[in-house]
Amino acid sequence: MGKRPAGTRPADSSRKPHYRVRVARRMADVGPQEWDRCAAHGNVFVTHAYLSALEDSRSVGPETGYAPCHFVIEEPDGTVAAVAPAYVKEHSEGEYGTDKGWDRHHADFPGAYYPKLQFEVPLTPIGGPRLLTGPDTDKATLLKILFAAASGFAERNTLSSVHVNYASKAEVEALEQLGAIADPDIQLLWSNDGYDSFDAFVRTLRAKRRNTILRERAEITGQGIAFDHVTGGSLEAGHMDRFYPFYRSTNRRYGAKLLLRPEFFHDLRARLADRLHLILARRGADHVGGTLLVRDGDTLYARYWGCSEEIKFLHFEAVYYQAIDYAIRHGIAHIHGGSGGPHKISRGFLPMAVQHAHWFRDKRFHRLIEQGLKTKTKTIARQTDAIMRRAPFVRATPRA
């Protein structure tokens, strides 16, 4: 077993005598088959391969402020009943708005806000189950055990809080019953309503938006930009070498800390090439930008983008129009666009609900955040209504 973060002790395994809860300090401490047996009903981002790529590339680890402490719930005979990816975090970087400056508010209360315990897929704001359970298990019972173990772990290790980010709706509802605070949010999703071509899609849009999209696409073509789509066995190490500077340039442009190392993208290709879809923008023989998407079932996840120079409308074409065109031609049902961005809404992405759950050791701080999140619930409802009013479709309904 790997080295524990300084000052932490094991999870409490005494609450349920017929189960044992242990903490794995790295993904390598849980067998891939055991983990993925539990992750079978999740998505690619909770698989052993994806989480291991984050750790093995050193994009995630104690040295980056993400100390792995994955919770493993075992039957008396040692069979793994459930797993949950978790990290002791020393910061709130890479959380994409789920932590709203709570560290500053916590300064008025005893103790430090960091470190905190977080159940999540690091640097990956994608919804899905956070307690991964094996077949024929009682998830409600296992969730109670996980919550008790996590809050006990936080108490014993002087962690300010427990956060479960981008969890399933059922998990958040159950955690709320156990004393956590529900935290609603929205992301944006494009859906393929049986279109037989990109033109069929744009015909469903209001005239002004339809004409804008067609004009943007024509301008990209007029600049001599073409696109290479690379996936599966065709994806080589050289493609990742070509893409990484594009990804790095986006982080630099927006002043964001570069958290994902080049090795992560190589590890991802080595382990999950059949799930990756790389779109490279090419002018003549030179690639000038690219988008890396991850496919899981009927959904494409637009994850990373960048370019070597500013080319008007390249971002819209490479990230959205090329992906939409590909999804239509290959019968893919959805494109997950992540959080925020009016530019996504005007290109056919509609709001979908996501949720988080939080628990704080300090009861007064817990109540303060609870009151604030009640206000946020109303704000999210207003934001959803506002997005739908701006939606480009002749008719539009928000996604469940």
Question: What labels describe this entry?
Answer:
400 residues; alpha+beta; Aminopeptidase; 2 domains; 11-stranded mixed β-sheet; 4-stranded antiparallel β-sheet; 12 helices; 36% helix; globular; disordered N terminus
Describe this structure in words.
With 400 residues, this protein is of the alpha+beta class. Helix content is 36%, strand content 24%. It has two domains: 20-185 and 354-390, Aminopeptidase; 193-332, Gcn5-related N-acetyltransferase (GNAT) (Aminopeptidase, 3-Layer(aba) Sandwich), CATH 3.40.630.30. It contains twelve helices and 15 strands. The chain has an eleven-stranded mixed β-sheet, sandwiched between helices. A four-stranded antiparallel β-sheet has the order 1-3-4-7. A hairpin with a 5-residue loop joins β3 and β4 (80-84). α2 (48-56) packs antiparallel against α9 (262-272).
Q: Brief overview, please?
A:
This protein has 400 residues and is an alpha+beta fold.
Reading the helices and strands in chain order gives EHHEEEEHEEHEHEHHEHHEEEHEHEH
- Secondary structure: number of strands: 15
- Mean pLDDT over the full residue set: 92
CATH topology of the largest domain: Aminopeptidase
Helix content: 25-40%
Radius of gyration: 22 Å
What is the end-to-end distance?
Answer: 41 Å
Describe the secondary-structure layout.
Layout: E1 20-24, H1 32-38, H2 48-56, E2 66-68, E3 70-74, E4 80-84, E5 86-89, H3 102-106, E6 116-119, E7 132-133, H4 139-156, E8 161-167, H5 169-177, E9 181-191, H6 198-202, H7 207-222, E10 225-231, H8 237-253, H9 262-272, E11 276-283, E12 286-296, E13 299-307, H10 314-329, E14 334-336, H11 342-345, E15 350-360, H12 363-390
Parallel strand pairs: 6-8, 13-14
Antiparallel strand pairs: 1-3, 2-5, 3-4, 4-7, 5-6, 8-15, 9-14, 9-15, 10-11, 11-12, 12-13
Helix pairs in contact: 2-9, 8-9
